[in-house]
Write a structure and sequence with these properties.
Pfam families: DUF6944. By secondary structure, the protein is mostly helical. It has six helices and no strands.
Length: about 210
C-alpha cells in the first residue's frame, strides 16, 4: 500500500477516534434530557470508535515509532473501559476498570506528546502536540474523578465531564492536523505529477531553420 492510501486511512482513523471521544463526552455530560440507557449505549459506541480509530492509526504508521506505541496504548485503554461497560462486574470493579482504562489512555497520549515534541515545529506538529497534550490532561482528569468517586463515594460527574470534553477537543485538534497533513501531501503529489507531465511534453524549437 502506497503512502497516499496510508495517509487517507490514517485520516479516517483520526476522525473515527475524534467522533468517539465526542460521543463519550456527550454520554458523560450530566443533566442531559436523555434516557440513561441511551447515554450508556453512547458511551459504549464512543469507546468502541476510539479503540478502532487508535488501532487504525497504529496500522498506518510505517515504520512503527513512538506515535504508534502511544496509539496502541490508548487503544488498549479504550478496550479496558469497554470491558467494564460490557461485562457484568460489580460497580467497584467497573469503576476500577474505568480508572485503569483512562490512565492507559493518558499514558498513550503522553507517549505521543513525547514523540511530537521532538519533531520539526510545523503547523501539523503543533496541532498534534496540543491535541495529544489535551487528550492526556482530559484522561488524567477522568481518572482522578473516578478515583475520588471510588474512594470518597462522591458525585464527580461534572469533573468527569470536564475531562471528557477536554479529551474530545484534543482529539479533534489531532484529527484536524492529520487532515491538513494528508491534504498537504496530496497537493505536493499533484504538483510533482504536473511537473513530470510538463517535463515529458515534446519541446519544439522557437527558431526556424533555413
Amino acid at each position: 500500500m502506497d503512502n497516499h492510501n496510508l495517509e487517507q486511512i490514517a485520516e479516517f482513523g483520526a476522525w473515527t477516534q475524534a467522533f468517539g471521544t465526542i460521543a463519550s463526552a456527550i454520554s458523560s455530560t450530566p443533566n442531559l434530557p436523555l434516557p440513561e440507557t441511551l447515554l450508556e449505549d453512547l458511551n459504549i459506541i464512543g469507546n468502541t470508535l476510539q479503540a478502532t480509530g487508535n488501532a487504525v492509526l497504529v496500522d498506518t504508521t510505517v515504520p512503527a515509532d513512538l506515535s504508534s506505541v502511544g496509539n496502541a496504548v490508548q487503544s488498549i485503554g479504550n478496550s479496558t473501559v469497554l470491558v467494564g461497560l460490557l461485562l457484568h462486574y460489580s460497580e467497584t470493579r467497573k469503576e476500577l476498570l474505568n480508572i485503569q482504562g483512562n490512565l492507559l489512555q493518558a499514558l498513550g497520549g503522553g507517549i505521543s506528546v513525547a514523540f511530537v515534541y521532538g519533531q520539526t515545529p510545523t503547523e501539523v506538529q503543533v496541532l498534534n502536540l496540543y491535541g495529544n497534550l489535551l487528550q492526556t490532561i482530559g484522561n488524567s482528569i477522568q481518572s482522578i474523578a473516578g478515583f475520588i468517586e471510588l474512594k470518597r463515594d462522591e458525585d464527580t460527574s461534572e469533573l468527569n465531564a470536564v475531562g471528557s470534553w477536554i479529551q474530545a477537543v484534543g482529539s479533534v485538534l489531532s484529527a484536524i492536523g492529520q487532515s491538513i497533513d494528508t491534504q498537504s501531501n496530496e497537493n505536493e503529489k499533484n504538483r510533482d505529477q504536473e511537473d513530470l507531465y510538463f517535463y515529458r511534453l515534446p519541446h519544439t524549437s522557437v527558431f526556424n531553420k533555413d
